[in-house]
Write a structure and sequence with these properties.
Strand order of the largest sheet of chain B: 6-9-10-3-11-12
Number of strands of chain B: 12
Strand content of chain A: 5-15%
Structural class of chain A: alpha/beta
Largest interface: A-B, 170 and 190 residues
Strand order of the largest sheet of chain A: 6-9-10-3-11-12
Shape of chain B: elongated
Largest sheet of chain A: 6 strands, mixed
Shape of chain A: elongated
Oligomer: heterodimer
Number of helices of chain A: 19
CATH architecture of the largest domain in chain B: Up-down Bundle
Helix content of chain A: 55-70%
CATH architecture of one domain in chain A: Up-down Bundle
Largest sheet of chain B: 6 strands, mixed
CATH superfamily of the largest domain in chain B: ABC transporter type 1, transmembrane domain
Strand content of chain B: 5-15%
Chain lengths: 620, 578
């Protein structure tokens, strides 16, 4: 964020074919920012080729862009030549015939150039934005098809930044490559050719400062990067401290640590200040130094050229042309480093986007279709094993059988593998050993979407989308009628609270459903599951973050939901699962203790201990 | 924005020197075309080789003097702007620290963080620009204009047309594009919001097989965003070609009209060349004005956000004639206390709460999520002030007690342990930095944290936080308990602070508290009846009211809501935490 400082554009007294003006407000601020920490692409060639396939879909438009770019660049290149010509042919000799014609030619060229460069930008914007749109769309589509394990190992912030920062970088890089680089190339080469045609000595004089420009850009750039890095580090620790103290303000105030925090802050703030002053000074040198080099160039051409005119070797018009050319020539070269960085960042961004697009989806092959309406709900786990990493098994040879309509409870300590059973049943993860059968079919042979349509879930985190209450319930079955939605809400005990809201079923919900209580949100997700009407139901700690009294009121909704379905209930509270047809006590990835509540108590195993531990705790 | 100038005042000298140096650079830049004219007219035309050499050397000197000005300006503007930013950041931080929680509800912490960081950086950059570019561009414009006028008055006709045209164009461009950009931002937020929502609910999306539906919804916002962005970028793309065209047309006009003036003997060739250069310089400096305008509006937005924080009046302030709390006591009275977070009185979080806890007594507080338990205990150390009623400690209203003295008497264990980066010992010492190692160890032992801390490779010196070790929820809670116990407070408050601690350990902690802190008044918020059953007094909260107050036996006998809670936890064997 600190690199949004603006460097003045070195302005020489010469016509400037492409001045910086208003620019899009965006990260990094307008204008050419100071060098930011560079990002390097690893496999530039392949990534660029792949980006090209996206662009290539709009080949016709791209051809237009190139044609217009070439035309605009030619205008930029030729006009100083004509300007010099005008002075030599007409001004110096004091002739007026033909000057008007040349002026009109120049006007026409300039107007044509302006139109060409706007059309070029117009078409290119469309090309680039359409490409970015499809890139974003592809990314989102990919997210929908990636397995759950992918999301478990990455933060949302990281994935969000692919959609924003990385694509933004692609956009910036694209803008640089496709048009600016081409323009620079044509202007540099074309100017050089015309300069050589005009005068060899003055061409060499104009080129004297070019190595200096490059050297200055490289040297200042190097120091700048280092000092910005130092500044960035200080800023990072300052941000860390701010986040911690503002986030924990309650604790800071209660423990009266304001003064200590202020001192700590002041210390880092001073360090940041020292680093920042240094970084700003170093990076700010670019402007004046480039300005000076331009002025030196200007002086050299004026003086040496003047002397040559005096000798009769050249003309005033040629000097005027050269003053323009040396300017056009120097700037693209000085900009190259900056352009190169932007392109690098763009390729790196594209690489990170492609990295996701290349992930294996969970729908690599389509399985056998399953009519979710006809599923009876018999579930068999046959020696099911699972491990995220081969060395650390999570489940080992779990075996059980659930008859249609039975209620199966999963209990046991955290990390015992309860949620893993659910993840395997829905194929969020694939078993690494054994088989799971639904109505006798190995679920690996089934189509994943069909499988999931027959398994409904109510999770601990009652997830609610932005939209209305009605659309949230309808999420369970998109083609459900209003009456069906309301009927599902009634079955879930949600109807009464919904009707009590001023807008009833059409009450808008914010993202995450902050305007409902947790219990209400949970009732909505139960209604959603009722509407989906799955043969198999999973309740994964659906009530564990609700206080016990609210839970009691939800229990009834739960019971009506489970009626007639094979259900799997994961619960912390034993009270909710004692009536289960079968309780699986999970421990260390095994389900060795199985049976009804009474059977397990009689067996005097872990379940017995667990059940009695709370009596011990309560009576202490 | 203007009021923030006070932060620049201490650095008035560099803030003054920077523009002065810039004046030097601009003057040198302005001299170059004039010297060029001298070479052409006095050197070439007059055939004086010595004049050409002298003027050429002078031009080189001018270029080098100019860089002194530029570098000097850079140095002083950096010093002024960075120090300005540092001071602004610090006073903003101090201000934020003084804010009460009612303030913080209005200005949530994530926006405060961006204000202290991003907005201050934005303003810092603005000051730097102010001292450099904002000086350079207008001066170049005015300077070039004066130089051009001094060369030839008649040619000024061209400028009199070109400059207004340029301004009108700039004005319309800004007017059309600014509202568009606001829309772009809004639609971008929608794209991000949709994606975030999708990622948060990815399991639900998958479980209900709704990816087609989700793609359709994302596709719609993506399309909208792309459409508006393309439109605004196409409008902005007009900027450069049009500006350049105006510039070039002016030059051609100067060439044509200047040619005529030259023929009539009113204008030398060198003067014409210099004039063209001044015109170029002036018009291209105007391009920078557009950039300056966007920067001003952005800095204005940042300044408003920063000032909003400064304007926030900390509504909890130290009472003027504050009394320092005497060392002994621990009696706590709530008298008809009501409290609300919002401004509407009908949305009270607490209504008419009255109770008394005698020194050394324990009060247990039960109630559903959102029933007001945390609000109630937050009032005691004055994180909030009540709307009505009085809270007294040892008979003194808390609003009359010196804040530091009040908070020093209260040990608070919040719901979220909220540890800070640093070592474990640092964290336990948080409330009493002067405590000895032995005291730290004893506090940790009382909180049942000593054993697991000792087992760590670096013991009490283990670092927690971003780069340090990760503690489990229960371990964090126990450190937070040790932190409060170390203060040896007169009132201890536990806000559901053992939720992640297993039952056996929780029982041990409770035992230690009863034994070693028997003289300390304790308030215990809990979910489980078992945690407060033995308290001297139990209060059941329901929607902001004290639904029932009494001992376990009294409540079991008289309170339906209490019995219901007990039933929900005990009915069929109670709850188990494993």
């Amino acid at each position: 964020m600190s690199d949004s400082s603006i460097k003045e554009k070195p302005q020489s007294p010469n016509p400037d074919p492409a001045p910086a003006g208003l620019s899009l407000p965006g990260p990094g601020g307008p204008g050419r920012g100071a060098p930011r920490p560079k990002e390097r692409a690893r496999n530039t060639g392949a990534t660029v080729r792949r980006l090209w396939t996206y662009l290539n879909r709009q080949r016709a438009d791209l051809l237009w862009v190139y044609a217009l770019t070439v035309f605009a660049a030619l205008v930029t290149m030729v006009s100083p030549y004509l300007l010099g010509l005008a002075i030599d042919r007409f001004i110096t000799p004091g002739r007026s015939d033909g000057l008007l014609g040349l002026c009109l030619l120049l006007l026409g060229l300039y107007a044509g150039g302006a139109i060409a460069s706007w059309l070029q930008a117009y078409v290119m914007t469309g090309v680039a934005q359409r490409m970015l749109q499809s890139l974003r769309g592809d990314l989102f589509r990919k997210f929908q098809r990636l397995p759950v394990s992918f999301f478990d190992t990455r933060t949302h912030g990281e994935l969000m930044s692919r959609n924003t920062n990385d694509i933004e970088n692609v956009s910036n890089g694209l803008n640089q490559t496709v048009t600016q680089m081409l323009t620079s190339l044509i202007v540099v080469i074309g100017s050089l050719v015309l300069m050589l045609r005009l005068n060899l000595v003055l061409t060499l004089v104009s080129l004297v400062t070019v190595p200096l420009v490059l050297l200055a850009a490289k040297m200042i750039g190097g120091i700048t990067r280092r000092s910005f890095k130092a500044q960035q580090e200080r800023l990072g620790s300052l941000n860390g401290l701010i986040e911690e103290s503002v986030g924990g303000q309650r604790t800071v105030q209660i423990f009266r640590r304001e003064q200590a925090m202020k001192e700590q802050f002041g210390e880092i703030n001073n360090e940041l200040n020292r680093a920042a002053v240094r970084a700003q000074i170093v990076s700010g040198l670019v402007g004046p130094v480039m300005n000076m080099l331009n002025n030196i160039n200007f002086a050299l051409i004026a003086a040496i050229g003047g002397w040559m005119v005096w000798q009769g070797w050249t003309s005033v018009g040629v000097i005027v042309s050269f003053l323009n050319y040396s300017r056009q020539f120097g700037r693209p070269i000085a900009d190259l480093a900056n352009q190169y960085n932007l392109i690098q960042a763009g390729v790196a961004g594209a690489e990170r986007v492609f990295e996701i697009l290349d992930q294996e989806t969970e729908y690599e092959e389509r399985g056998r279709a399953l009519d979710s309406r006809a599923v009876r709900g018999e579930v068999i786990f046959d020696k099911v094993s699972f491990a995220y990493r081969p060395s650390r098994p999570v489940l080992s040879e779990v075996e059980f059988r659930a008859e249609p309509g039975q209620k199966i409870a999963l209990v046991g300590p955290t990390g015992a593998g309860k949620t893993t059973i659910v993840n395997l049943l829905t194929r969020f993860y694939e078993v690494t050993g054994g088989t799971i059968r639904i109505d006798g079919c190995d679920i690996r042979e089934l189509d994943k979407n069909d499988l999931r349509r027959s398994v409904g879930m109510v999770l601990q985190d009652a997830y609610v989308f932005a939209g209305t209450i009605r659309s949230n319930i309808r999420y369970g079955r998109l083609d459900a009628s209003d009456a069906e939605v309301e009927h599902a809400a009634e079955l879930a005990n949600a109807d009464s609270f919904i009707r009590a809201l001023p807008k009833g079923y059409d009450t808008p919900l914010t993202m995450g459903g902050a305007n409902l209580s947790h219990g209400q949100r949970q009732l909505l997700t139960i209604a959603r599951a009722v509407l989906a009407d799955p043969a198999i139901l999973i309740l994964d700690e659906a009530t564990s973050s609700i206080d016990t009294r609210t839970e009691m009121h939800i229990q009834e909704a739960m019971r009506s939901l489970m009626r007639g379905r094979t259900s799997f209930v994961i619960a912390h509270r034993l009270s909710t699962i004692q009536d289960a047809d079968r309780i699986l006590f999970m421990n260390g990835g095994r389900a060795d203790e199985q049976g009804t509540h009474e059977e397990l108590l009689a067996a005097r195993g872990f379940y017995y201990d667990l059940y009695h531990s709370q009596f011990a705790a309560r009576s202490s | 924005m203007w009021r923030l100038r006070t932060y620049l005042k201490p650095y008035w000298l560099p803030a003054l020197l920077a523009p002065l140096f810039m004046v030097l650079e601009v003057c040198m830049d302005l001299m170059q075309p004039l010297l060029l004219q001298r070479i052409v007219d006095d050197g070439i035309a007059a055939g004086d080789a010595g004049e050409i050499r002298r003027t050429g050397l002078l031009m080189l000197t001018v270029a080098i003097v100019g860089v002194i000005g530029g570098v000097g300006c850079t140095i002083y503007s950096s010093i002024a702007s960075q120090h300005f930013g540092r001071d602004l950041r610090e006073s903003l931080f101090v201000k934020v620290q003084s804010l009460s929680f009612r303030n913080l509800d209005r200005l949530p912490s994530d926006t405060l963080i961006t204000r202290i960081t991003n907005d201050v950086t934005q303003l810092q950059t603005f000051v730097q620009m102010l001292l450099r570019m904002f000086v350079r561009s207008p001066m170049l414009i005015v300077g070039s204009l004066i130089m051009a006028l001094s060369i030839n008055l008649k040619l000024t006709v061209i400028l009199a047309i070109a400059v207004p045209v340029l301004f009108v164009f700039l004005f319309f461009l800004v007017r059309f594009s600014l509202p568009l950009f606001a829309t772009v931002q809004k639609r971008l937020d929608r794209v991000n919001g949709r994606l975030q929502e999708n990622l948060n609910g990815i399991r639900v999306v998958k479980a209900f097989v709704r990816s087609d539906y989700e793609e359709e919804r994302f596709g719609a916002v993506n399309r909208d965003y792309t459409a508006i962005l393309t439109r605004s970028m196409r409008i902005m793309a007009l900027n450069m070609p049009v500006m350049t065209l105006i510039l070039n047309v002016s030059i051609v006009a100067v060439l044509w009209y200047g040619g005529a003036l030259n023929r009539s003997g009113d204008l030398a060739v060198g003067e014409l060349v210099a004039y063209i250069n001044y015109v170029t310089q002036m018009l291209s400096s105007m391009l920078a004005i557009g950039m300056i305008l966007t920067f001003i509006s952005r800095a204005k937005a940042s300044a408003d956000r920063v000032n909003e924080v400064f304007d926030e009046r900390a509504d909890i302030e130290n009472p003027p004639a504050a009394s320092v709390l005497p060392a002994v006591g621990g009696r706590l009275d709530f008298e008809n206390v009501s409290f609300g977070y919002g401004t509407h009185t009908d949305e009270l979080a607490l209504r008419d709460i009255t109770f008394t806890v005698l020194p050394g007594q324990t009060l247990g507080i039960l109630g559903a999520t959102g029933s007001g338990k945390t609000s109630l205990v937050s009032l005691i150390p004055r994180l909030y002030d009540p709307e009505a009623g009085t809270i007294r400690i040892d008979g003194l209203p808390v609003s009359h007690i010196d804040l530091s003295s009040l908070r020093g008497k209260i040990g608070f264990v919040p719901q979220e342990a909220n540890l800070f980066s640093g070592t474990i010992a640092d964290n336990i010492r948080f409330g009493r930095p002067g405590a000895s190692d032995d005291e730290v160890r004893r506090a940790a032992a009382a909180a049942q944290a000593h054993a697991f801390i000792e087992r760590m490779p670096e013991g009490y010196a283990s670092r927690i936080g971003q780069k340090g070790i990760n503690l489990s929820g229960g371990q964090k809670q126990r450190i937070a308990i040790a932190r409060a116990l170390l203060m040896r407070p007169e009132v201890l408050i536990f806000d559901d602070s053992t939720s992640a601690v297993d039952l056996a350990t929780e029982a041990k902690i409770r035992g230690t508290l009863q034994r070693d802190f028997s003289g300390t008044t304790q308030l215990i918020i809990a979910q489980r009846v078992s945690a407060v059953q033995g308290a001297d007094l139990i209060m059941v909260m329901d929607r902001g009211r004290a639904a029932a107050v009494g001992t376990h036996e009294e409540l079991t006998a008289n309170s339906e809501i209490y019995r219901e809670i007990c039933r929900s936890q005990e009915s069929e064997g109670g709850e188990a935490r494993v």
